[in-house]
Amino acid sequence: MKKQFQFGAVIVAVMLLAACATKPTPPAEAPTPEPAPPVETAPAAPQKSAAELEMEAKAAEEELKRQQLLSEERIYFAYDSSAIDEPSRAIVEAHSAYIMENPDVTVSLEGHCDERGTREYNLALGERRAQSVQKLMAAYGVQAKQIVVVSFGEEKPADPGHDESAWRKNRRAELVYKLK
Amino acid sequence: MNRIKRLTVAAGTLLMLMSVLLTAPAHAILTIEITQGVDTGIPVAIVPFSFDGTSKPAQSVSDVVEADLTRSGRFSVVPRKDLPASASADAEVRFPDWRALKLEGLVVGSVQQLSTGKYQVQFRLYDVFRQSQLAGYRYVVPAELLRTVGHQIADLIYEKLTGERGAFNTRIAYVTKEGALRRPQFKLQIADSDGYNPQTIVTSVEPLMSPAWSPDGQRLSYVSFEDGRAKVYMQTVSDGRRQLLAEFFGINSAPAFAPDGKRLALTLSRDGNAEIYIFELGARQLRRLTRDPAIDTEPAWSPDGRALVFTSDRSGRPQLYRIKAEGGPAERLTFEGDYNARASYSPDGKMLTLVSGHKGRYHIATLRLDTRGLQVLTDTPLDESPTFAPNGRMVLYATEVRGRGVLASVSADGRVRQLYRLESGDVREPAWSPYNRELQH
Predict the structure, then answer these.
(1) What confidence score (pLDDT) does residue B414 get?
(2) Are A114 and A157 a contacting pair, CB within 8 Å?
């Protein structure tokens, strides 16, 4: 899925730039010169104002940022917490927009925990983490039928290590897309 | 005459071949070592049981007895080389020869192969000082039950000499994980409590969790992710038949059989968050027990079936609560430490074993229900899943040693410790079975 986003990012960026470039502008009217030998000149490029150029750059930058956020498919959590921090909220927002634009996709929110604590409590905590993401998506307008919540507790770690550097990678919610 | 002799030899050879096939040596996948024993064990001597027959069985009853008593950490078994020269079959016990060893118990016995192919096992336990017999029994069993006889004899000796019931004639269930990170294989296995005779109940490429024994020891309930999410199954140990018990929306987990074997407590999140439910196995009816937006999970039945203890984070972090089986308010039980979870009752109903955490380190502890006193039994930081032996004297739990999942046990008073290692892979989630059915004697 990550590769598709990157490819898509390039395509969209190019299309947007092309779209900006082909914005119609009235051709310059040049007065007929006095009899002079015919001279080959290249057609004049459409003139853009500084404001237009700035808008184009900004839109491209935002689109790139959006694609970067969409390429993030994991939200991480603090120890024993299901709260979503600011950077993660931006990721969820970007995914929410994408889901709303694509009624054919379902996203599975998979909740996970690190290995500390008891397994059954962690199974429920993993669900709570996935539900946090679900609630936030609903707040952004995603319909319930496009979201599925699943928890794996501590049973499917991303990193099998037994220290904080591993545990940090395991406290997560993964966004897994499926086509209907 | 010659012809009969030849036939007899042929028959004897055939019998020998058959018994070798039938009694293929059982090996332990789980190896157990004592890491801490009491300073002064009860001194006992076990004379290797004599054998009378044509084909000696692969399993030595007296070896099983000796290994059990040694492993309990409460006995000091006289090494074989230090046994008096006269030691042999029980008819010839000469007490004066044994007095020098200052024993509390002397075990002698015999195994006799019968014409039916079964074995008759006899043993006697003597009090050397008083020169009296403390116990003596006789069993008739097929070869595959010889280890069971050994465990039953060890339980009898344990009880006679310590005053407490033994727990050698029991089994343990556990989950193993082998293979690479991205391609793991999970198994739910059961084995004798000494690690022998492992039997795989379920194999899966998706996680397995929370094995729970039925009170009659015939069934196991467990959580399987084979369908992509947590569902609860119940399986008969003897024939492997299984039923899917719970696949409601959300989590289906934490099965726990009621002492009457007719109900199962479960954790379900079908109503939006993890709550405890009671499932009537006969009527297939579900009754909700907890009503709280917090996580409520890990139900454990009291031995009288009248109450359940469970884990809830309704006060902010996980703590233990108790509720009547018919429902009602939940009473908080734990106030020390910042995390108390996964309770399990002792067989006499007076104590709980639990996981008690503080500042990110998780230990095994016990809680006395009368005084609410918490006693931490371990100091390793990643301990979980404690389960009592059916005599209430040992707690078996999962921990980690040098990056590998292993099982460990600690006596309720903290004095005896053992480690259970798998040949390869991780082992976790132990559940100690109820007592095995007793063999006739």
Answers:
(1) 86
(2) yes
Topology of the domain comprising B171-432: Neuraminidase (2.120.10)
- Kindly report the nearest CA distance between residue A99 and chain B, in angstroms: 22
Q: Taking CB atoms and an 8 Å cutoff, what residues of chain A touch B269? A: 124, 127
Q: Domain segments of chain A: what residues?
A: 1-24+51-71, 74-180
Chain B nearest-CA distance from A44, in A, is 59
Q: What's the pLDDT at B182?
A: 84
Q: What is the pTM of this model?
A: 0.85
Number of A–B residue contacts, CB under 8 Å? 86
Question: How far is it, in rounded angstroms, from Cα A64 to Cα A16?
Answer: 11
The interface predicted TM-score of the complex, written ipTM, equals 0.89
Are residues A117 and B357, on separate chains, in Cβ contact within 8 Å?
yes
Distances (CA, A) of B300 to A73, B94, B141, B278, B347: 37, 52, 37, 11, 12
Average pLDDT over residues B107-133: 93
Task: Name chain A contacts of B385, Cβ cutoff 8 Å.
Answer: 118-119
| Separation CA B265–CA A33 (nearest Å) | 96
Residues of B in contact with A155 (CB under 8 A): 207, 209, 225
Record the tokens describing residue B331, joined without a space.
Answer: 């009473």
Q: Answer positive or negative: Cα dihedral of B19, B20, B22, B27.
A: positive
pLDDT digits (tens, 9 = 90+) for B157-215: 999 999 999 999 999 999 999 998 789 999 999 999 998 999 999 999 999 999 999 99
Provide, as residue numbers in chain A, all residues whose Cβ is less than 8 Å from the Cβ of B403.
Answer: 162
Number of other CB atoms surrounding residue A58 within 10 Å:
10
Chain B residues with beta carbon closer than 8 angstroms to that of A153: 209
B26-162 CATH: 3.40.50.10070
Looking at this protein, which amino acid is placed at residue A73? E
Per-residue pLDDT of A147-167, as tens digits, reads: 999 999 999 999 999 999 999
Task: Take residue A134 and report the two structure tokens written for it.
Answer: 């679900």
B230 to A151: CB separation less than 8 angstroms, yes or no: yes
Cβ pair B171, B217 in contact under 8 A: yes
Domain A74-180 matching CATH 3.40.50.300: the answer reads no
- Record: contact A124-B297, CB cut-off 8 A: yes
Q: Which of B271, B292, B297 to mutate to test the interface with A (most CBs of A within 10 A)?
A: B297
pLDDT digits (tens, 9 = 90+) for A61-71: 999 999 999 99
